[in-house]
Amino acid sequence: MSREVLCITGPPQVLEGALQAALGGFDVCQAAGLDAAAGALEGQHFPVGVLVLDDWDGPLGALDHFLRRHSRPRWIALFRPQALQDAPLRQLVHDHCVDFHTWPLDPARLSHTIGHALGLAALGPHAQDAEACAMRLTGSSPAITLLRQQILKVAGADAPVLIWGESGTGKELVARAIHEHSGRADGPFVPINCGAIPASLVQSELFGYEKGAFTGAGSGKTGLVESASGGSIFLDEIGDLPLELQANLLRFLQERTIYRVGGTRSVPVDARVIAASHVKLAEAVERGHFREDLFYRLNVLTLQVPALRERREDVVALAEEVFHSYATERARGLRGFSSSALCALRSHDWPGNVRELLNRVRRAAVMADGALIQPHDLELEAPGRASPAPSEALESARERAERLALQSQLDAGHSITAVARGLGISRMTLYRLMAKHGISRPARRQED
User: Fold this and answer.
1) For residue 135, is pLDDT > 50?
2) Which fold does the domain 4-123 belong to in CATH?
3) d(CA 90, CA 9)
4) How confident is the model at residue 126 (pLDDT cuts 50, 70, 90)?
5) Which CATH architecture has domain 131-304?
6) pLDDT beyond 60 at 440
7) Minimal CA–CA distance to 317: which of 46, 171, 127, 45?
8) Closest CA to 175 of 316, 320, 314, 298
């Protein structure tokens, strides 16, 4: 078990006497002040921290902010007995510390407290290895371990990468990890959501334009693809890219050059393409929604991001990661998750994947009233509570609701543009969903 202890003192001072004796059996890193402590915590995980507050001359607000930001260590406070009369200090110790001691210190008792805190820390989620932290892909399940290994393999090449995964699984994190472990890590990483750019602007946004190319183009503009030169470009939801733009992207992949809108000369661009989609592009090719030649150009190195239900053993570690990442937002005095909340997290099916988990934990951290997050704070069923048996499979229910939403909007006489806007999706995504459910396109309206 790790025995590292971070000891934060006031101005530089020598550890001596009872404090030195209590810390003698541990691996101690002394930090004079919060800045030094923050630097130490950036480079190493300390399971236990000791706060020496008797000579503390800084504002308690700064200390409170520091402890919220660095809440993983189990903190123990040391101060003079008279400091107990200070209500703000009492509240700070109550909110952030597992125990406290006052002078004169009893070395044996303090050593026992530190050992107990180390034991509590050992019960929590294990610290991720440095490689996993660098990739920001939390977890130790076989599925995520395999994905990390695959990322390291494809990062060393320079061929296009195609990432597939359900919505909310973290495809952009995978793309960033590939970039950060590649030889292009010092270059730009340019993410583009192909489904979020209006169809009329995709050409100019991706490839830029020359001065005078159209009304209002008073000067030229560098496109997103060109701005990624020397680095990587991430084309998220590439399945939503209009067919006419897919041809331009294919030309770029083949020739490594682009033409700006209104331009007559080719512009060389040295950028690696990483694409992602929640749609299986091979099926989109069969339906005629995606170019077959572009699919084969992109489908050189492929990665699949597992759904959260396929890596349930990572759920608690992910929840803890989110909890600590948004430490400055959470309710005062909130320390973590209750055992029933952890059981509820493990039991949930997570149809929204990691994005759903992030939203639930972040909301619970703000709204929770007690010291620990409970299942109802996460809007999840408590373990052991009977829940109504589903009358149909989740996937069937989702597809039925999806079809009803589309049909009701189209039957109301709305245009394709209005339906897509009302549902919060792109026109290309709407056409794909209509084809999936066998819904015919209504008579074309003038506003289309």
Assistant:
1) no
2) Rossmann fold (3.40.50)
3) 18
4) very low
5) 3-Layer(aba) Sandwich (3.40)
6) yes
7) 127
8) 298
